[in-house]
Amino acid sequence: MPLEIRIIKDSEYKAINDFFNEARNIIRPARETVRKYNEFSWEFLNGPCGKAIYAVAWDVVEGKEPVIVGVQCMIPLKMISSDSKCFLTAKGEDSLIDISALTKYKNTDILKELYNILLDECRKKGIEHVWGFNNMYATIKRLGFEFPVKSFYGVLVLNPVHAFKNIVSQDAVNTSFGKCKIALLSGFSFLFSWKKSLIFSGKGNYQFNSEMNENADLFQRASIPNRLFFLLQDSEYLKWRISENPYPIEYRSFQLLNHENILQAQVICSINKDVAFIEQILFDRNLKSKIVYHLLKKALKSLEEENICLVRHIGSKNNILNKKEMKMLKNIGFVYTKKGEQFSFVSLSDYFSINPENVYLSRLYKQGID
């Protein structure tokens, strides 16, 4: 009863999605966990840099149809540096292994075998670095990845009662003590949210709009003279990640442009029901802080008018841009609590063209499915 691990064929993509749905439904039978094939196609087949590279583990039994027992993929994506160099990278996604296969093939490290074949395929395609977000620290570390960056969850409560109900339902808190802790956090964060009214801000001589412009040039102006790295968010990426996103998530963009119509600051938010996420904040390094605060306050006011009860953010402290972002959000009332997912990174060559600690990170690097 051999285990066959190989790169997927084009005719087998539907089988991958079926495996995902069957495995997910064993764990959580809720309807929303079923991934439709058009959602799978958008996420893994229609990306701005081509199809995801998939490796699949098949349980092959003589006289029976082979059965998928494990999958892992890499999504090709481009990064740029603040000095305009471009790098082909890949993000690890869609990792899933059938528990029964781990028992049946206990002498085979299925995940490691999947990664080995994927990393070889990435090298063949000219991919220089592989990265991702996950909580499986020990598992990913033994595959050769490093964890150079830690993230932190931040919240700003706009409606404490509704925010309390939302957090309790999301975290499945059942104890009275747990609910009291969340009630205190909601109240504490709501009090801190009043800090935004104390921050001096001014619009200055800038135009405001709600479009979503390409932002690579803005990133470069934000980061120079530091050499930082950024996931390229050109028109193709923004079209794929936001405009064509089939999931029920809405996006808002808040931008400031100067008199020459050059983008000076951009705040991108996502909305899922009554909860918003600040996905990303970029602003020209020469822009005065009071102007940036004005844009942030305008974004929060707009979210409040849409009856958003809670605004979330995932921040990190690995480079000057991420540090500035967290500092500004703290100043207008965000409270940062527990640590979030960790950023994993591995170079596929001896030449480290990207320093992972200098990668500016935002939630727009994630898949945008929640």
What can you tell me about this protein's structure?
- Helices cover 34% and strands 30% of the residues.
- The protein is an alpha+beta fold and 370 residues long.
- Strands 1, 2, 3, 4, 5, 6, 7, 8, 9, 10, 11, 12 and 13 form a 13-stranded mixed β-sheet that branches.
- A hairpin with a 5-residue loop joins β9 and β10.
- α6 crosses α7.
- The radius of gyration is 22 Å and the shape is globular.
- About 1% of the residues have low confidence.
List the helices and strands and how they pair.
Blueprint: E1 3-7, H1 13-27, H2 37-44, E2 53-59, E3 67-81, E4 86-97, H3 99-104, H4 110-124, E5 129-134, H5 137-141, E6 146-157, H6 160-171, H7 176-192, E7 207-209, H8 216-223, E8 229-231, H9 235-243, E9 250-257, E10 263-272, E11 275-283, H10 289-305, E12 310-316, H11 320-331, E13 335-347
Parallel strand pairs: 4-5, 11-12
Antiparallel strand pairs: 1-2, 2-3, 3-4, 3-8, 5-13, 6-12, 6-13, 7-9, 9-10, 10-11
Main sheet specs? 13 strands, mixed
Q: Alpha-carbon distance between the termini? A: 39 Å
Structural class by helix and strand composition: alpha+beta
Strand content: 25-35%
Mean pLDDT across every amino acid position: 86
Order of helices and strands: EHHEEEHHEHEHHEHEHEEEHEHE
| Percent range of helical residues | 25-40%
Overall outline: globular
Number of helices: 11
Please give the radius of gyration in angstroms: 22 Å
Give the strand tally: 13
Q: Low-confidence spans: pLDDT under 50, at least 5 residues? A: 27-31
